[in-house]
Design brief:
6 strands, globular, alpha/beta, Rossmann fold
């Protein structure tokens, strides 16, 4: 069976950044930049005509913002998957991005391997918040990252989206392993180990790895 590449719409007004990202994905099996836009309005039109699987959206665009473009795209199609990829980090922009319907808020200095992993998980229906942005959500108790306690059965049901690799990493977190130790034991890079731990923390709705370990033990996840 041939796997169809993930179709990407790249929305970025800076040519150098756009060329760099396009080059990155040209070298990556399973992903392809099938359309590009240099403005928010152009992005909306390109979405209508090219039907991308995932949109990489900058915030600072020359006409409307990437946040407004995301909102208008989601009004057309509630299944659209938008990743805000930005150098901006403010409480307002984080909150507005997620409230517009974006699936992810990612800083541009992210490791490229982690960005590719995020794109794959977003395409499959996940959400991802850059660790630097999470404190804004916690402080506001906004409901976008819910604070709640669950029964063990509900906990297992709600977190069935943990991947097999994430379960393996979580068990090592419970054992008190560092990211470097996890990487060595699973024969993966330290960056990949860190990405898995960040995903686990977000999926378990906790603030750090210690809370993740405590919650996993308390709810019988491992």
């Amino acid at each position: 069976m041939i796997n169809t590449p993930i179709k990407l719409l790249l929305v970025e007004d800076h040519k150098l950044m756009r060329v760099g990202l396009k080059s990155l994905f040209e070298e990556q099996d399973g992903m392809e930049v099938t359309s590009e836009a240099q403005s928010g309005k152009d992005a909306i039109e390109k979405f209508k005509t090219t039907h991308p699987d995932v949109i990489l959206m900058d915030i600072g665009l020359p006409d409307i913002t990437g946040i407004e473009a995301t909102k208008q795209i989601l009004e057309q199609n509630t299944n659209a998957k938008v990743i805000i990829l930005t150098s901006h980090l403010s409480e307002k922009e984080v909150m507005d991005s997620l409230q517009s319907g974006a699936c992810a808020y990612v800083m541009k200095d992210i490791n490229t391997d982690i960005l590719k992993m995020i794109i794959r998980t977003i395409k499959d229906g996940a959400m991802w918040i850059d660790p630097l942005a999470v404190p804004f959500l916690r402080e506001k108790n906004s409901g976008l990252v819910p604070q709640r306690q669950m029964s063990r059965a509900t906990f297992r049901k709600e977190h069935a989206d943990l991947t097999q690799r994430e379960y393996e990493v979580l068990k090592l977190v419970v054992d008190g392993k560092s990211n470097n130790e996890i990487a060595e034991e699973l024969t993966i890079s330290a960056h990949t180990a860190k990405a898995h731990v960040c995903n686990i923390i977000q999926k378990l709705l906790v603030d750090d790895r210690t809370q993740a370990a405590v919650k996993a033990l308390k709810e019988g996840l491992v």
